[in-house]
Amino acid sequence: MTNTITSSIEGFDEADRALAGVEPFLRRKLADRAVRRAAGKTRSSIRKEAPKGDGIGGEEGFPELKKEIKAVVRKYDKLTLAVIGPTVEARQAHLVEFGHKMVVGGTISSGDPARTRKAKDPNRTGKGRVVGLVEPKPFVRPGAEKSKPQVERTMVDVLKQLASEYPEWQAL
Fold this sequence. Notes:
Strand order of the largest sheet: 1-2
Order of helices and strands: HHEEHEEH
Low-confidence stretches: none
Number of strands: 4
Structural class: alpha+beta
Mean pLDDT: 76
Strand content: 15-25%
Distance between the termini: 43 Å
């Protein structure tokens, strides 16, 4: 299951066209700075939405969710991309976000146990039984949605700031 949240900012295409005459280096600087700041706003918003603690009742070995929400910005030839969300260390994040079945006595088999790693452990070969459901506590999607107005303002603010740093942009 892929969970991607894409954001489209109204008016940014017009700003991009207006900046077409500006040197590519400066355009790139604008994009990088705007994406980095916007990613930080989104990360903060998701952290505010995350449940307290590890989100699953304080089991040992699970990190606090808020601390494991990161924003990584990657620069490619013609693209600056931000990936924001829980890190690999927060391996319980998807269970908190989407909910899950409570299973005791092993695991629930979802196919041929001989084809899974779990089949090597006799205690984990599909002998479990479902004793309840844990309700989802979404935090990534709501946090990202709440940050959209901030992201738009951040993009505009970065554009204004760079315009003040580079007077030749004032006329745009």
